[in-house]
Amino acid sequence: MSNFIEKVTSINDVINGFVWVKIGLILLIGTGVLMTAVTKVFQITHLPHWWKKTGGGVFKKTSHNKKEKGSVSQFQALCTALAATIGTGNIAGVSAAICIGGPGAVFWMWVAAFFGMMTNFSENVLGIFYRRKNVEGEWSGGAMYYLQDGLGSYKGCKIIGKILAILFACFAVLASFGIGNMGQINKITLNIESAFFSDITEKLVLFAGIKWGESVFTQEIRLVPFCIGIALMIIASVIILGGLKRIAAVAEKIVPFMAVAYIIGALILCGVNITAIPEAFLSIIRFAFGVKPVAGAVVGIAIKEVITQGCKRGVFSNEAGLGSSVMVHSNSDVKEPVKQGMWGIFEVFADTFVVCTMTAMVVLTSGFIDLKTGMAIEGVSDATLVAKAFSNVFGKPGEWFIAVAILLFAFTTVLGWSHYGSKAVEYLFNTKVTRVYKVIFVVMIMAGALMGSSLAWDISDTFNGLMMVPNLIGVIALFPLVKKITDNYVKRKIKGQTDVEPLLSYDENIQKEHAKLVEEGAE
User: Fold this and answer.
1) Higher confidence at residue 439 or residue 85?
2) In Å, how far are 139, 263, 370 from 167, measured between CA atoms?
3) Nearest CA-CA partner of 360 in 257, 289, 263
4) pLDDT tens-digit map of 87-137
5) Which of 289, 365, 486, 515 has its CA at 20 to 30 Å from residue 300's CA atom?
6) How many angstroms separate the CA atoms of 420 and 412, rounded?
7) Structurally, what CATH architecture does the domain formed by 2-519 represent?
8) What residues does 140 pair with on adjacent strands?
9) Reduced to 3 DSSP states, what percent helix, strand and coil does the chain have, rounded to the nearest 5?
10) Closest CA to 111 of 51, 30, 38
């Protein structure tokens, strides 16, 4: 068994290195730069507009209004997408990036997020433009559809578009069990057990004395993870099997609360360590291009590692470029593709520039990272770094707080990814098969609670990259369309030109229906 694990690890390392280091980062940053350029730096030049339409207006009734059968409100779509993106990557992912790549990794996380805003914007614009209704009257959209119908509409690209769409959907299903399920549940279990039940060591015997040839097998599992797994399975089944409407309703209530609570806790820690904040920011800039050896005592961190960790963990956190969150943004009741695109900008901003930056400040001002060398002090690991920082100030309640934060962050990620996986399965098969997928997804929660290997996280990293590649190929291929749709919106909604026809959908019937609603002021 150990030889098999070693073989899988070795193969995964090769694929991971190729996807992320050889082509992934170039595609990721390159796509963001391209989309930033063709939209004329929309995230900066139209900042007041997109902020007013997103974060600045979340409490307006129109943001929460449920108008259409088979859809959710723009705010619910955002909360469901944030539920999937604001996960353990915002806590464990950031601390891992700093421990492995040094403080400079945070700089590259910001860089990836700045350009990722427009990648996510473009994905959402294409997602809304190429979506369609399924047999149950629910909107279906995502990279699968703009690869198939967008890239596939180019001369000689029909087959390649379809192949890339199928590959994306397959990788999305596999990733949903890794990053979206078992990895998240495993983090929940470990943190809850450590914070509240560390003194309970009882085990359950599943079977004993089972003979197989000349061997005798006995299988035991730890009691606490088993109980946590059962509880999470029951709660998840009630929500996930209830469909997107129920997932969105839960996300709408939990996501704002959990994000605000975590930010307040982080701000308190930063306030306690306020004198260390300037040096923390300086260390991010100083180490952004690699850590040099100090008096021969510190092994330098290569610039490639700093950039890779920052960009990889940034994508792991905000998912810009993966094409995953498009699958729930496409369920929005919005008619204007650019309007949902702007929620994509806000999603990356909230995830990385707010939540991830707060985690970085907590870590860098905690005293557990040597800001002169950029290295973690001896005995500190990325898995416990944030919890140590909180418990250092709040004592045991600080550790409890992080355990609950990870519970909420990670569990809502599971809910969001269950929808992503079901949409990928729907594309590959049909809506009936999605019910089977959801049952399997819920059952796999137990596997996540009981597993002890970090291999699942490494494989999840690889599937993230494998999802990213076909998605970004589609975004790059369709950049002229994104530019056309964006320019159309800017002329009509920002410059006030009334003689411009709206550009809303690839489907003529949907285009006519939505154009009429937009003209009537329903959008």
Assistant:
1) 439
2) 21, 37, 43
3) 263
4) 666 777 788 788 877 888 888 889 888 999 999 999 999 999 999 988 888
5) 365
6) 13
7) Up-down Bundle (1.20)
8) 132
9) 70, 5, 20
10) 30
Cα separation, 262 vs 86, whole angstroms: 11
pLDDT, one tens digit per residue, over 396-449 is 888 888 888 888 888 888 888 898 899 999 999 988 899 999 999 999 888 888
- DSSP notation for 354-383: IIIHHHHHHHHTSSSEETTTTEEPTT--TT
Q: Structure pTM?
A: 0.85
Instruction: Report residue 366 CA to chain centroid gap.
Output: 26
Name the residue type at position 34.
L
CA 441 from centroid of its chain's CA atoms? 18
Distances 331 to 211, 245, 485 between C-alpha atoms, Å = 52, 10, 19
Cα–Cα distance between 115 and 126 in angstroms, integer?
A: 17
Q: What is the dihedral of CA 292, 293, 295, 296, to 10 degrees?
A: -160
For helices 74-85 and 396-428, what crossing angle results, to 10°?
110
Closest CA to 423 of 82, 131, 79: 131
pLDDT above 80: residue 375 = no
For residue 254, the tally of other CB atoms under 10 A from its CB is 18
Give the length of the chain: 523
d(CA 415, CA 262) in angstroms, rounded, equals: 19
Three-class SS string for 431-500? HHHHHHHHHHHHHHHHHHHHCCCCHHHHHHHHHHHHHHHHHHHHHHHCHHHHHHHHHHHHHHHHCCCCCC
- pLDDT of 217 reads 57
Amino acid making up residue 32: G
Q: What is the 3-state secondary structure (H, E, C) of 249-285?
A: HHHHHHHHHHHHHHHHHHHHHHHHCHHHHHHHHHHHH
Q: Which residues pair with 470 in a beta bridge?
A: none
- What are the CA-CA distances from residue 2 to residues 5, 8, 9, 182, 455 (Å)? 5, 10, 10, 20, 12
DSSP-assigned letter for residue 292:
P
Q: What is the mean pLDDT of residues 32-53?
A: 94
- 163 token code pair: 């192949």
